[in-house]
Design brief:
Helix Hairpins; binds guanosine-5'-triphosphate
Length: 273
């Protein structure tokens, strides 16, 4: 079903789009929108009650875009209110706080909530997602690094931005790229343009990098049983090295994953006769 695609318009004509924000409570959704629309930052936390709604106009190339922004409350309590607003959306600003791992881990649940609400005929491929890794000004508390966030976003074909609603870093760039991508999508008959980055690495590479990041020890990292032989370790190493070598793999985090695999192999071989 293609219900969320606004009618294809001639270039130069105005276009009306619907954009929503998603992500856990307190990650900074309202502040990102305020920073862009009102050029200000609100340091006091005022939880969104249900939904906040605003209208703004932006210019993309020769087109005037009327943007209806629905800023969703992130608190689970407001699920019933939120689920009225997922339909007919062209763009989603999906936000997490780089200092709150839970808010990053929750991104899949946010996509699932939207998918469930759109129903079996809903199509998320027609929607532009901009992932905002927010609060990058709080560098001391950061626990989700750029490559982890970028890998998650780009492996799904989503845009990825490092943002701070407090300093304004990354906010204009995010909105400009986001709106251009939505207009491209509308002019492209509702198909999300393929980003260079998402097209250039495989799901296997992305999944392997994530597995390596989450591995508990060197055996686990190489995917061999504790006590494996030199041959088994070397075989597993060679397979991973081919998959992740920085000359072959451009997925975010591949260089670190490759180094970790080299170190894991060295450490294991030291202790195997
Ligand atoms: N340091 C810092 N604080 C931020 C940033 N963005 C938002 N905040 C603060 O984080 C708190 C929550 O911000 P909101 O924008 O209200 O969060 P929200 O995601 O809209 O929250 P809900 O409405 O409950 O869903 C506020 O105290 C903001 O001042 C940021 O980039 N850096």
């Amino acid at each position: 079903m293609e219900a969320n695609i606004p009618k294809r318009k001639e270039p130069g004509k105005s276009l009306r789009i619907k954009v929503i924000s998603m992500g856990n409570a307190e990650v900074g959704k309202s502040c990102i929108i305020k920073r862009y629309c009102e050029k200000r930052f609100v340091s006091k936390y005022l939880a969104t009650i249900g939904i906040d709604y605003g209208v703004t106009k932006v210019q993309v190339r020769d087109r005037e875009i009327k943007v209806n922004i629905f800023d969703m409350a992130g608190h689970p309590f407001f699920y019933e209110v939120r689920n009225e607003f997922y339909k007919d959306t062209q763009g989603v600003i999906l936000v997490y706080d780089v200092g709150q791992k839970d808010s990053f881990d929750a991104l899949d649940a946010w996509l699932a909530e939207m998918k469930q609400d759109l129903g079996p005929h809903g199509n998320m491929e027609n929607i532009v997602f901009a992932v905002c890794a927010n609060k990058i000004d709080c560098a001391k508390h950061r626990c989700v690094d750029e490559s982890e966030g970028r890998l998650w976003a780009e492996s799904k074909g989503f845009l990825y931005f490092e943002t701070s609603a407090q300093t304004g870093e990354g906010i204009s760039e995010m909105f400009q790229t986001f709106y251009v991508s939505i207009v491209d999508l509308c002019e492209n008959g509702g198909k999300r343009p393929i980003t260079n980055s998402s097209a250039s690495f495989t799901k296997e590479q992305a999944d392997t990098i994530r597995r390596i990041r989450n591995s508990k020890d060197s055996w686990d990292m190489l995917g061999v049983k504790p006590g494996a032989s030199r041959d088994e370790v070397n075989k597993a190493y060679r397979k991973l090295a081919v998959l992740l070598h920085p000359d072959k793999c451009v997925a975010p985090g591949s260089e670190d994953a490759f180094k970790a695999v080299v170190n894991a192999r060295t450490a294991l071989l030291k202790n195997i006769k």
